[in-house]
Structure formats: C-alpha cells, structure tokens
Amino acid sequence: MQFIVDCIGSIRAACPSIKIEVRMDSAFFSDEIVSKLDEHGIEFTISVPFERFSELKKMIDCRRRWRYFNDELAYFDTSWKPKKWDDKFRFLFIRKKVKQQSKELVSA
C-alpha cells in the first residue's frame, strides 16, 4: 500500500493539477486500497474477485433490469460494500453476449 501512496505523491509533486486515474486487477481489491485511493481523490477501476463474494454473483443472477449499450453489451450499477468494509462504493456490472457453444457432435 505504501508503494501506491508514494507513487501518488510523486505524480502529484510533478504534476499537481492533473487528474489521476488507476486501473487494477482483482489482486488489489481490498478495503484498504479502495479507501486510500478514494481518500486521495483518485479515479479508479478495480476488477472484483467474484469467487470471494457470492452475494455479488447472486445480485447479477437476480438482476432483471439492465441498461443496454448495444446488442452485445449491457450494464447496471449500484452502491455496495463487502460486509467487513466501512464504506459503500459504486460497483458497475457489465455483461456481454457470447455465442453459445454447441455440444452436439458434428458429422463429417
């Protein structure tokens, strides 16, 4: 965590008026990191490890109203927090239509 804070400080020292945006994979998804980025005014996107949060999977499976970008992409967003976190954050859920693989045998 200290490395991230130090990097933010270095960027702010060199370019004090810029907006900093961060993208991280699910290895960085934690209350500490999310809270620190928010505290420093950093715009961020972090993938969520769904296997650790069954309630998110249930939220997606039960969702009836999705907003559509086009024929292939849809999304919804909500404020949510894992049970052990102090604060809620915006979560954006995106789904993409994929061609379903046929399980039938193809004869030559």
Brief overview, please?
By secondary structure, this protein is of the alpha+beta class.
List keywords for this structure.
108 residues, alpha+beta, three-stranded antiparallel β-sheet, two-stranded parallel ribbon, 3 helices, elongated
What would your notes on this structure say?
By secondary structure, the protein is an alpha+beta fold. It contains three helices and five strands. The strands form two sheets. A three-stranded antiparallel sheet has the order 3-4-5, with no helix packed on it. Strands 1-2 form a two-stranded parallel sheet. Strand 1, helix 2 and strand 2 form a beta-alpha-beta unit. The chain is elongated. The N and C termini lie far apart (57 Å). The mean pLDDT is 90.
Tell me the structural class.
alpha+beta
- Uncertain segments of ≥5 residues (pLDDT<50)? none
- What's the number of extended β-strand segments? 5
Query: What's the alpha carbon Rg, rounded to whole Å?
Result: 19 Å
Strand fraction band? 15-25%
Order of adjacent strands in the largest pleated sheet:
3-4-5
Distance between the termini: 57 Å
Order of helices and strands: HEHEHEEE
Counted by DSSP, the helix tally is 3
- What's the overall geometry? elongated
- Estimate the mean pLDDT confidence: 90
The largest β sheet comes out as:
3 strands, antiparallel
